[in-house]
Design goal:
18% of the residues lie in helices and 49% in strands. It has 1 helix and 12 strands; from the N terminus they run H-E-E-E-E-E-E-E-E-E-E-E-E. Strands 2-3-6-7-5-4 form a 6-stranded antiparallel barrel. Strand 9 and strand 10 form a beta hairpin. The radius of gyration is 27 Å and the shape is elongated. The chain starts with a helix and ends in a 5-residue tail after the last strand. InterPro entries: LipoPS_assembly_LptC-rel (IPR010664), LPS_export_LptC (IPR052363), LptC (IPR026265). Keywords: Cell inner membrane, Cell membrane, Membrane, Transmembrane, Transmembrane helix. This is Lipopolysaccharide export system protein LptC.
């Protein structure tokens, strides 16, 4: 057999093998990027300030990752920290709310937090209030929040637990729908 024929056959086999390899890798890459391509943009390690209809700060968001759904115009957020500024008038505190996962509506008027949710008022207008739950929905412009599951509300001298929280962020007044338990905890002086 001619050595040129052998080299030609080896080169042809090498070209076929590399072509098949490239084609096979291309289909795997397309499958991986298909799900990631769903977001029309992604932010990494960012701080975002959302304004309400009057152009005033509604909330500030800090998180390691945010992805925007192009169809619904909603935001999915990993480990968000929402900073809700104090509202108008006396008695309004700023709030910090953290969670494992977050979601923001297209209009920015509804924040859904899930997984190890913790909220703390600044205490500028009175005792600080702490909230802990598995989920919490916050309406920053309306200055209210709600939760369906069990919630723990801690204030100096008091720990309150219950299900179905309704909270007015401005006045820090809250109510539960059921299973309410109160525990008095003396404060150190």
């Amino acid at each position: 057999m001619n050595w040129r024929a052998v080299v030609t056959i080896l080169l042809l086999l090498g070209a076929l093998a590399s072509g098949w390899s490239v084609w096979n890798q291309r289909s795997k890459d397309a499958a991986i990027t298909g799900a990631a391509a769903r977001a029309d943009y992604v932010l990494i390690d960012f701080e975002l300030t959302a304004l309400n209809a009057e152009g005033k700060e509604s909330f500030t968001l800090q998180a390691p990752r945010l992805a925007r759904d192009p169809e619904k115009k909603t935001l999915d957020i990993a480990t968000p920290l929402f900073l809700i500024p104090p509202g108008q008038g006396a008695g309004n505190d700023a709030w910090e709310v953290r969670a494992k996962d977050g979601w923001v509506s297209a209009d920015g008027d509804e924040l859904r937090l899930q997984g190890d949710v913790k909220g703390v008022s600044s205490g500028a207008s009175g005792p600080s209030t702490k909230i802990a739950s598995r989920e919490l929905t916050v309406y920053p412009d309306a200055r209210r929040a709600s939760a369906q599951g069990q919630v723990v509300v801690t204030r100096p001298g008091s720990i309150l637990t219950g299900r179905g929280l309704q909270l007015d962020l401005a006045s820090k007044q809250y109510s539960f729908k059921s299973e309410v338990h109160h525990r008095y905890v003396p404060t150190a002086r």
